[in-house]
Amino acid sequence: MQKHVIIHALHGFLGGPSDWLLNRTADFDFKLRAEVIFDDCFTGKTMREWAEAFNARVFGQRDQNKNAVKVLLGYSMGGRLAMHALLQAPHIWDMAIFVSANTGLKDPVARVERKASDEDWAKQFESEEWPSLMKKWNDQTVFTGSLAVSVRKECDFNRGQLAAVLRNWSLGCQECLDDRLAELCVPTLWVAGELDRRYSAIASEAGKKCSFYKAAIIQGAGHRVPWDRGDVFFKTVSEFIKTNLKCTEG
Questions:
Q1: 187/105 Cα distance (integer angstroms)
Q2: Domain span at 13
Q3: Residues of the chain below pLDDT 70
Q4: Distance (Å, whole) CA 137 – CA 126
Q5: Among 47, 81, 155, 211, which residue carries the largest CB count within 10 Å?
Q6: What is the DSSP string of 210-248?
Q7: Which of 18, 87, 22, 24 is nearest to 52 (CA)?
Q8: pLDDT, position 49
Q9: Angle at CA of residue 156, ends 153 and 157, nearest 5°
Q10: Is residue 158 part of a domain?
Q11: What number of H helices and E strands is found in the chain?
Q12: Residue 227: how many other CB atoms lie within 10 Å
């Protein structure tokens, strides 16, 4: 009997659950549950606290889908949240997929600089005119070679909430997680775009960490891999899941 697979997908900063509906391929045959990150229950928490609350919600759904294979998928900031969720409760997750996600900064100076940068962004999200702010956001070097996912409307967001997320979940506040993640026996796929050199290096290096890891560098894609090359991305995800399902059956 074919196993039922549920992918719990976490969007990035300035994103939303509907992002995962874009560039879906017709033959993607796994259920993808696009999760809400910025609701009132979760904002204001540290990443660890968020992960604990999120896992409790997923675990509470397990009776409804107790025979389902649970896959944790996170993009960018959502990938960092997914890392915390996996570390907090590895026993409830069967596989993990981290897309354009950073495991953390080892250099203390770099962490201080990142916190200062995110504080500056937080202040801009609190006060700057939305059109010019969106242009600045999309003009960041990290998005070079990537498509804009969709038009982001100010009315769809809470500016104070976005500013709080930038402060609370800054990469500068996060401990480096790569060694702790490598200790887990959870099959994990690390995905990055070829044109996103920093994150493709992170994914490639992670792929060497342990036998449970696999790295996939998508050609012709930048940081926004699932939307730059949705066809290749979802095919890669499908193959990873099917391969690991066969391993568990064998």
A1: 23
A2: 5-104+176-249
A3: 1-2, 22-27, 40-43, 61-66, 148-150, 248-250
A4: 14
A5: 81
A6: -TTEEEEEETT--S-HHHHSHHHHHHHHHHHHHHHHHHH
A7: 87
A8: 92
A9: 105
A10: no
A11: 9, 6
A12: 20
Beta strands in 62-187 (DSSP E): 69-75, 95-99
Residues 16, 22: Cα–Cα separation, whole Å: 11
Contact 181, 51 (CB under 8 A): no
Of 152, 171, 54, 161, nearest in space to 101 by CA: 171
Per the domain annotation, does 47 fall within a domain? yes
Cα distance from N-terminal residue to C-terminal residue, the chain: 13
Amino acid code (one letter) for 90: P
Check which CATH number belongs to the domain holding 33 and give it.
3.40.50.1820
Question: 25 exposed, middle or buried (CB, 10 Å; 0-12, 13-18, 19+)?
Answer: middle
Specify the number of domains making up the chain.
1
Strands 95-99 and 213-218: unpaired
- Residue 174 to residue 181: CA distance in whole angstroms: 14
Give the CA distances from residue 197 to residues 29, 143, 218, 223, in Å, rounded to whole numbers and listed in that order: 31, 11, 11, 9
In the chain, the amino acid numbered 143 is: F
Does 210 reside within a domain?
A: yes
Q: How much is the pLDDT for 1?
A: 44
Q: Read off the DSSP letter of residue 2.
A: P
CB 91 within 8 A of CB 105: no
